[in-house]
Amino acid sequence: MDHPRPCGCKGRRTCLSCEAEFGIAPIDFYSTFQNNDSYVYCPRCSKIYPGWDWEKVLAEHSDTPQHGGVQGEDYPGVYIDLDFLTTTEEAELLQGLDELPWDVSQSGRRKQNFGPKTNFKKTRLRPAQFAGFPQLSEFVQRRFEQVPLLATFQTIEQCSLEYCPERGASIDPHIDDCWIWGERIVTVNLLSDSVLTMSPYRGEEGKTKYNLHFLEQYREHLLGELMDEEALAGYENRIVRIPMPRRSLLVLYGPPRYQWEHSVLREDIKERRVCLAYREFTPMYLQGGSEFGQSEEIFERAKQFWDHRTVKVES
């Protein structure tokens, strides 16, 4: 099953459609994670507390005493703005996105991708057909400038991802590529609440995944200091659940970006959810970096915003 299926899945990725058609047994991350100690990140006090149900843990923030008097623990590298978009902005954004074509993707998702062509295995970058971003979402990027953590963020990819329960949509635990995508992983959540499930990453001996070895080329530029082995050992057999409420902004950086895998479990998709994922380049591809010659044209194209009602979009 290594070749793409009609539903868009390939390899170990599955959705409800191909599981039924080809008799594929999905990997049960939900049950596996249930065997670990689970914690929930509270965006109101930036601490983690024991529990699995993020709504319950957030509700406990307003209790007296807060969180039942439980002392929260630090989990650095997470920023959440619970009110990043208004209801009107969300509605207008969704209307515009749904006027653009959606492509099938793996694990029951659909996507819209605006960015350069990347080959993670061969570490090759090309502008290809990238012509900037749809004007309907320009205000989102402009608003990043009001977030101190994102003051220097330069968007070079915007990807819309749709998760629907009727397709069994999810995304397996992973770390975003570290050769080309920079430290800050930015997500704007639309339509429904969900949660990001974090699990500690332990690399396999002799194997390189996610192009993590490139991290050593720019580690000194990181915004968030990485955990040492002793600190990481304290999180062994732990799961951290990060809420992604409707209309919120989530930014991961530092340890959650490089030392934890993140996933969206099928069981956490209750209604249609759409998110906008934004990526920046690694320091090698920024101005002054060793590879800026390959990315300079892409940065110029990334300044463009086009009206989807007057421009034909290739799906």
From TrEMBL:
<protein>
    <submittedName>
        <fullName>AGAP009588-PA</fullName>
    </submittedName>
</protein>
<dbReference type="GO" id="GO:0070988">
    <property type="term" value="P:demethylation"/>
</dbReference>
<dbReference type="GO" id="GO:0030496">
    <property type="term" value="C:midbody"/>
</dbReference>
<dbReference type="GO" id="GO:0070938">
    <property type="term" value="C:contractile ring"/>
</dbReference>
<dbReference type="GO" id="GO:0031032">
    <property type="term" value="P:actomyosin structure organization"/>
</dbReference>
<dbReference type="GO" id="GO:0016706">
    <property type="term" value="F:2-oxoglutarate-dependent dioxygenase activity"/>
</dbReference>
<dbReference type="InterPro" id="IPR032857">
    <property type="entry name" value="ALKBH4"/>
</dbReference>
<dbReference type="InterPro" id="IPR037151">
    <property type="entry name" value="AlkB-like_sf"/>
</dbReference>
<dbReference type="GO" id="GO:0032451">
    <property type="term" value="F:demethylase activity"/>
</dbReference>
